[in-house]
Amino acid sequence: MAEHNVCVELVRERQKCTFEVQELIHLIDGGITATEERREVENVVCTDPRIKDVVPEEYLSHKERYENAIRKNCILQEILKKYTEKRTWDNFRPSNKYRISSGVVKDISPFMLHTGMFIPTLVNQSDDEQKAKWVPKAMSMEIIGTYAQTELGHGSFIRGLETTATYDPNTEEFVLNTPNLTSYKWWPGGLAHTANHCIVVAQLYSKGQHYGVHPFFVQIRDIETHVPLPGIKVGEIGPKLGFQTANNGFLGFENFRIPRRNMLMKNAQVLKDGTYIKSKNDKLTYGTMVFVRVIILFDLAFELSRAATIAVRYSAVRHQSQLKANEPELQIIDYVTQQHKLFIGVSTSHVFRVVGLWLWNTYVKVNADIGKGNMDQLPELHALACCLKAVCSRDAAARVEEFRLACGGHGFMTSSNLPIINGIVSASITYEGEFSVLMLQTARFLMKAWNGVLARKTLTPTVSYLSKFSNSDRVQWANTTAGIISGFQAAAAGKTKEAYAAIQSYLKPGTDYEDAWNSASVQLVSASEAHCRAILCEISWSEMQRLSKTVSPNLGKVLLELAELYLTYWSLEKRGDLLMYTTISTADIAKLQARYEELLALIRPNAVGIVDGFDIRDEILNSTLGAYDGRVYERLMEEAKKSPLNAEPVNESFHKYIKPLMLKAKL
Ligand SMILES: CCCCCCCCCCCCCCCCCCCCCC(=O)SCCNC(=O)CCNC(=O)[C@H](O)C(C)(C)COP(=O)(O)OP(=O)(O)OC[C@H]1O[C@@H](n2cnc3c(N)ncnc32)[C@H](O)[C@@H]1OP(=O)(O)O
Ligand SMILES: Cc1cc2nc3c(=O)[nH]c(=O)nc-3n(C[C@H](O)[C@H](O)[C@H](O)COP(=O)(O)OP(=O)(O)OC[C@H]3O[C@@H](n4cnc5c(N)ncnc54)[C@H](O)[C@@H]3O)c2cc1C
After folding, report:
1. Of 103, 122, 45, whose CA–CA distance to 287 is shortest?
2. ipTM reported for the complex, 2 dp
């Protein structure tokens, strides 16, 4: 990027950097070729004049904003065709390439669910014949779809969904119905006015029997006219905290008929005469949710990298207050409290990316096994995906909020883009499985694992550490990274043991297990969190160590500093747990604190270089505070001038309302 016009602070920061930024960029992308391919797509999209907004999207009406998002995302799809035609599901791998949609609209694309859930469900839940018929059409966008599962009355409890699909053997069709107000589909992205098809998750009935929830491929609008088909009631659910352009919708059915073969039949089937063939495992119907929970980690890493870039660059440009009398005002990044707010967020983005890749590889392996009929690893994958999605989304939202606060008043401006990123990340705590609900799923797995510990069974890999800590009360502490990881595992084992004991203690005569579970559930969530933190620490440290050996020593050192900062930060945050479950002393904690402050100082000179390493184009950052050139104040004023209120010196409301008010006051 050109260095002219870059503010002096950022020029100086970049000169200080001790490693080669390009090397970090290639590492994050997964190689030089990946960087080149990503940049090529970004360059074509971001320089297309049709993509540039004259009026910033936040000034548009709700309706205009949607229409603008559709217009620009259609242009994007057209451009992307050239780059994605060789893409098949088999070579799909999460990458930073899809970040390009943030360069098109600031908020969420109305097509997100088409790519993120409609296609993955068709690929993973259809049989071969169905796949051959539907997937190419969806990939080329001949049909546009979404994933309609949640209803007004039920989101978390899928078994409680009310939409029915009743098989009629006379016509070989399913009849879809929305029996109550609470059975309306509610939330699906793109459902309102974008999609003409959707996956509908409904309760299956055949031959008078109920077989639970299954996915169906349903056309809801006419392909030519886009008018909702007879028997379909569809619309938009209205404004939200974020996701304004996601086009979330509602959907109801009135005796709406679809062919028998529109039930996705890879796992379970209904034969012509209505005979039901059971799936090998009924949880395979939930497969898309597992896929998305895995992918969400990459999304969070990316959103964190955007927020980090904005807040770190701004903190280098912004001067405020004097540390010493008669000296110039400090760059705010030099206040150690500011570094404390910023650097953990930067390091968390790296942690989520590397743990996300590890989880993705686990997902691919388990799925391959499932393909061969081996379901053994499915519960472990589910437990991992649940707690990682839950904890990482909550952490990411906390970090984005901290980045916003770190930018003071200007962080509150929509033009900083931090409020929009905040909305995007906050939503992820709820969608695709609400935080507590997913944490309790992992807790179920932990309780079973603890039964295994007690029965001296061999445990599956991600919980095998539990056996190591089952007997000792307080584990020997060591102030090393290995010691920290071991400390986190000890805390997870201790909390698992206590949650298990709490259930037993609530299991008085006459008490159901479920009630005892509910009574112990705060402890169960706490055990899940501790387990997840142990995994985040262990995997991120081993992955960052491995990566540091593949790059130059200067970059390797920075990667290890970031990874160690993550471990040290969380040791200090969770010092209470460590005091309970390890022999850590107050002197050890003081040493950790000193090391933490040392790490902040070590990272400080490279801070701008590290966020430059995320390589996020200005058009994708969308921020007055975070642009590469650091012209913060100029951009804030340029954006303020775009306010429609500034188009006229006196607003008509003065004559209509204020003046009469003032006149009345005189009387
Ligand atoms: C080339 C191709 C390229 C193109 C494409 C490439 C794509 C590229 C990507 C593009 C970027 C896109 C980025 C993403 C953006 C996405 C945005 C998303 C927006 C948001 C979408 C949504 O928001 S969409 C709705 C999600 N809505 C939920 O998320 C409900 C949660 N609610 C539950 O998920 C269940 O309701 C809940 C609680 C489990 C209980 O389910 P339940 O009652 O049936 O089960 P129980 O609790 O009774 O448990 C009974 C036993 O089942 C076990 N089990 C349960 N689930 C299991 C499972 N999944 N797998 C295995 N095992 C499972 C459990 O562990 C028990 O095991 P055990 O008995 O042994 O203990
Ligand atoms: C921005 C956004 C986009 C979405 N997109 C889609 C989409 O494209 N398609 C789709 O189908 N859905 C979508 N959803 C819906 C989403 O998946 C659900 O909102 C989510 O699964 C939570 O369900 P719920 O809203 O019913 O919450 P509830 O389950 O009603 O949760 C409310 C509270 O009850 C608690 N609770 C519920 N059950 C339990 C339990 N068993 N134990 C303890 N506590 C419990 C929760 O922890 C929470 O505190 C979207 C949601 C959002 C916010």
Report:
1. 122
2. 0.98
